[in-house]
Write a structure and sequence with these properties.
The chain contains 13 helices and 8 strands. The protein has one domain: 3-Layer(aba) Sandwich (Arginase, Chain A). It is α/β, with parallel strands linked by helices. Strands 2-1-3-8-7-4-5-6 form an 8-stranded parallel β-sheet, sandwiched between helices. Helix 10 links the parallel strand 7 and strand 8. The longest helix is centred in the C-terminal third of the chain and has 22 residues. Helix content is 40%, strand content 11%. The two termini are 38 Å apart. The structure holds zinc ion. The site of zinc ion has 7 residues, from loops.
Length: 395
C-alpha cells in the first residue's frame, strides 16, 4: 500500500469565474463562498512547499455526477440547483435557496458539485489503497439536507461520499467525526437509523447559534439508536475543556466501534479568532487533534479522509488545514510562515498577529471558567450515560 496522502488540487475551482459574482462579493461578502478565503487557504500549503514532499500526491478535484448527488439528495432539489443557478426562481425558497447564507449565483451547481465528486474519489481512493489518507480543503458541507440548502452548504459531500463507500463495501463500518464548530446536522440526518455509520459531532450549542440542534438526546433511531453522538460545548470552551470531552467520549467510542473507514470534517471555525463562533481553541488543539486522529486511525484500518469544513477567518482556516495536512501526512511544517504568504495576507487587508504556527491562548476569568467546566462535565456525563451502554462501555 502506498504511504502517500492525497491532497485535492483546488486550482481548477479557484480559476472559475463564479466566485467573483457580485452576489457573493457585495458589501457583505459571503463568509464561505469567498474567493479570497479559498485562495488564502490553498496558497499556504503551496508556499510552505508541502506539496513538493514525496509523501503528498496531488489529485484533481472533480464535480459529482447526478447519480452520485442522488445518493443523498432529492432529484427535484438537484434539478432546481442545475436549472436555476443563473437566474434564481420562485422554486428556490422551497429548497432553502436564495438566502444570505445560500445565495443563488452563477454556476452554483458546479461549485457545489466539486467538493462532492472530490470526496467520493477521496474515500474510494483510500478504500482501494491508492493512498493512505486523503484531504480536501474545500469540503465538509455538513448542513446540506436531502432537499434543502442551509448554512452555506448546497450538497452534502460527507453524506454522499460515505453512502458511495457503503454501496461499494457493504457491511463496513464508518466513523464520521465532525469537529466543525457547528452541529453536523445534515450528515447526522443521513445516517440517523444506521448503526454502520457512527456520527460524532462536537460543536458549540448556545442560544440562537446555528443550526440549534445537536443535543445529546439526539442519539439515533431504530437500529441506529446510540450511533448518533452529540457533544455540545458552551461558548468560551477552551483547549483544555475541549480535549477533556474528546478523551472522555470520542476516544473510547472510537476504540470500541473499530471503524473500517474514518471520515473527518475538521472545520476551522472552533478557533478562537473565528468571527462566526465563540469557542476558544488555539492551533495547539488542531496539532494535537490531527496527531491523535492519525494515531487512532493507525491503530485500526488506516483509512482516513479529511475535509476542511467551515472556518471564516481566512488566516486561521488556512493555518488549521495546513497543520492538519502536515500531521496526517507526517510532514514537518516549515519553522515559520512563508513571508510571501504573509505578504498575500497583507495584500488582502488581513492581519497576521503572529508569524508562527501557534497563537497566544487567552485566559478566561475563574467565574466563567467554572461555569464552562460544569457544562462540559454535564455534557460528558449525559453522553456517557446515553451512548456508552449501546457500545458495551462502562460509564
Ligand atoms: Zn461550521
Amino acid at each position: 500500500m502506498s504511504g502517500k496522502t492525497a491532497l485535492y488540487d483546488s486550482s481548477v475551482f479557484l480559476e472559475m469565474e463564479g466566485l467573483d459574482d457580485p452576489i457573493l462579493s457585495g458589501p457583505e461578502p459571503n463568509p464561505f463562498w469567498n474567493k479570497k478565503r479559498f485562495e488564502m487557504a490553498w496558497s499556504l500549503p503551496v508556499m510552505s512547499k508541502i506539496l513538493d514532499n514525496e509523501y503528498i500526491t496531488l489529485q484533481p478535484m472533480r464535480t459529482a455526477t447526478r447519480d452520485e448527488l442522488s445518493l443523498f439528495h432529492d432529484i427535484s432539489y438537484i434539478e432546481t440547483m442545475e436549472l436555476f443557478g443563473n437566474t434564481g426562481t420562485a422554486f428556490s425558497a422551497r429548497f432553502g435557496l436564495d438566502t444570505d447564507e445560500n445565495p443563488v449565483f452563477q454556476d452554483m451547481h458546479i461549485f457545489a458539485a466539486y467538493p462532492v465528486g472530490t470526496a467520493v474519489d477521496a474515500i474510494l481512493g483510500v478504500a482501494e489503497g491508492k493512498f493512505n489518507n486523503a484531504m480536501s480543503f474545500f469540503g465538509g458541507l455538513h448542513h446540506a439536507m436531502e432537499s434543502r440548502a442551509a448554512g452555506f452548504c448546497y450538497y452534502n459531500d460527507c453524506a454522499i461520499a460515505i453512502k458511495k463507500y457503503k454501496e461499494k463495501y457493504p457491511g463496513k463500518k464508518v466513523l464520521y467525526l465532525d469537529t466543525d464548530v457547528h452541529h453536523g446536522d445534515g450528515t447526522q440526518s443521513a445516517f440517523y437509523d444506521d448503526p454502520e455509520v457512527l456520527t460524532i459531532s462536537m460543536h458549540e450549542l448556545s442560544m440562537g447559534f446555528f443550526p440549534g440542534t445537536g443535543r445529546p438526546e439526539e442519539m439515533g433511531i431504530g437500529e441506529g439508536k446510540g450511533y448518533s453522538v452529540n457533544i455540545p460545548l458552551p461558548p468560551l470552551t477552551d483547549d483544555f475543556e475541549f480535549w477533556r470531552a474528546f478523551e472522555d467520549i470520542v476516544v473510547p467510542l472510537w476504540l470500541a466501534y473499530k471503524p473500517d473507514m474514518v471520515f473527518w470534517d475538521v472545520g476551522a471555525d472552533a478557533h478562537l479568532s473565528d468571527p462566526l463562533a465563540d469557542l476558544m481553541l488555539t492551533y495547539d488543539t488542531y496539532h494535537r487533534l490531527s496527531k491523535t486522529v492519525h494515531q487512532l486511525v493507525h491503530l485500526g484500518e488506516r483509512k482516513l479522509v479529511v475535509t476542511g469544513g467551515g472556518g471564516y477567518n481566512p488566516v486561521a482556516a488556512a493555518k488549521v488545514w495546513t497543520i492538519v495536512l502536515s500531521n496526517i501526512a507526517g510532514i514537518a511544517l516549515p519553522p515559520t510562515i512563508p513571508p510571501e504568504w504573509i505578504k498575500l495576507c497583507h495584500s488582502h487587508g488581513l492581519k497576521m498577529p503572529r508569524g508562527g504556527w501557534t497563537d497566544r491562548p487567552t485566559r478566561i476569568d475563574e467565574e466563567h471558567y467554572s461555569k464552562i467546566r460544569r457544562a462540559i462535565d454535564e455534557a460528558i456525563e449525559k453522553v456517557q450515560k446515553l451512548i456508552f451502554p449501546v457500545h458495551g462501555l462502562e460509564k
